[in-house]
Automatic annotation (TrEMBL):
Binding site for Zn(2+): 101, 103
Keyword Nucleus part of the UniProt annotation: no
Protein name as catalogued: Methylthioribulose-1-phosphate dehydratase
Similarity comment text for this entry: Belongs to the aldolase class II family. MtnB subfamily.
Record note on cofactor: Binds 1 zinc ion per subunit.
Keywords of this entry: Amino-acid biosynthesis, Lyase, Metal-binding, Methionine biosynthesis, Zinc
Gene name per UniProt: mtnB
Amino acid sequence: MTADISALDLEEAGAVLAAEAARFASFGWMRGTSGNLSVVLSRDPLRLAVTASGRDKGELTAADVVLVDGRGAAVRGGRPSAEAALHARVAALTGAGAVVHVHTVASVAMGRRAPGGIVLRDLEILKGVGQPAHDVDVLLPVIANSQDMTELGDRLEAARSPRMPAVVVAGHGLYVWGADPRQARHHTEVVEWLLELELTGR
């Protein structure tokens, strides 16, 4: 079976990802060319639109996107991020429709402070990731970084918590996912708020 994804489909996905990237860049979460975003365009076979490698995320256009397969290899377009394979792994593993990867100071700092994971509870904003605000421990996993996306994906799969649509990669940044780009954005903003609170509160 092949995915029937038109150039227009890819351009529309690129426009959405460019807008999301500009938002995150305005927060200082995608400095320089760092970070990457993706949206699922097909499930069978798995196909994702991923932001192109080496581009300033505050200046992306609808054309700055690459279609990749379930291994993160380019199917159409230019060169995807080296981390496209992890986006595909997250989408396949979680059923997510969109994945966000940002390099925030709070995620890197907290990954160093809490390499075993970050336990959160009794905060109203936890509702933003679908969890109870009180009396429940919610674990935000932290995993060791790797330049091997298969190894990093294995670590994410082993560590991920069904209560939290996110993982901190130590010394690197934050991966967050959602049903679509809007929900992935909301989840990212909530998780980053939680990380900033933990960072400032210690």
